[in-house]
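Okay, is this right?
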Amino acid sequence: MARDKITEGAQSRKRGGLAETIAAILLRMKGYHILARRYGTPVGEIDIIAKRGSVVVYVEVKWRAHMEDALAAVPVHTQARITRAAGWHSKATGVCGGVQRFDVIAMAPWSMPRHIENAWMVP
């Protein structure tokens, strides 16, 4: 039983890594420059940090069995964690004065990835 959980966790991380790679390729095709992947801070991790023009984009990537589940997989507490991590990144890199945006890229088997720009706003 424990071995199954380890295997399941490893498979989940592998799928997540593949989803992030696909998301990074999609963003590059849309003209974004990838600044970081799996950017870790003391308050959380950001899957992808990208930039296009003067806009820095913090991207959460979600892979689920069904697209509807992937689209709904960023609840308010996850948004708050990513927002805090983005603030940490901004202060650490000096991009505080620029335009920031929070996006989600949702993926599911046999579906085209969906890039949701401005998935949530920070007051």
Q: What stands out?
A: The helical segments are 2-29, 67-71, 76-93. The longest strand covers residues 33-41.
